[in-house]
Amino acid sequence: MIRIDNITRGRFGNKILQYNSLVQISNNLGLEPSCVQWDGHIFFKNLVNNKPNNKPMRKLTWKDVLNKTDNELKEMAKNYTLNIDDPSYLLHNVFFKITRKDPREYLELKDNFKPKLSPDFIHIGIHIRGGDIRGSDGNNGREIHPASYYINAIQEIENDKELSSNKIYYVCTDDKTFETYIELVKYLIVNNIQSKLGPNTYNNRTLKQANNSYINDFALLTECDIIISSSSTFAIVASFIGKKNKKIIFYKKWLERNIKHEKWGNYTNDYKQEYWYSYDNFWIDISNGGNDYLNIWKIVE
User: pTM, whole model, 2 decimals?
Assistant: First the structure.
């Protein structure tokens, strides 16, 4: 068995990534999955539930997953139940190694949360990272991409002759005070580009105030044809859930920062540096094209 007894303390995107790690490793190794109740049980169909366990527990870490073969992991599981609670940190750092089955098979939104978007338009979701990185952990907004990136991405889309001229852009964020949001919305209005705010963005609710209303912006992003992505796992997981073959755009300078392994935390020993590199490597894989489930379309300045 492999199990989650405490869902990660991270936000919604990280929780989905941890759950994806559970079900993907379960599939890869032929282990029965078990999972405690979490937000996803409200929103998704047929999630794994908590099951009894009769074996001693052994923690399965990100380092185990990245460094060991399937056979070695199966050996670990012979006499133990594998546990991936924090601080196992099986999040986006292990995504490309373990994801061998379409995450949509494990993560399908319930029908009442799915937006009904007109087939007569190309729907483009824009995600701007928000208040979760205002504090020291987010280096006071270091991970928020500039408005120029979003504007350049829109121009790439508008100039693409293979795309229909009927387009709607949706701006989604949980913090409308950042300059990126203000400049982008002004650009859309001045240039008469058809656009709307995501439902949660329109209501100006933060995650703490929203009583789970963030699902409305998330569900909208999952059904878009194109996503202009942020550095947030909220946008990442929306890219591999819902509508298939979405075209995803990423910010070139953000990817380059990770390729260079520019330091983003106070890592003072080799283990922590490896941990930091493991997350950078996710973005390096993105820059190399991703995989069948995370379809990288364009990388934009």
Answer: 0.93
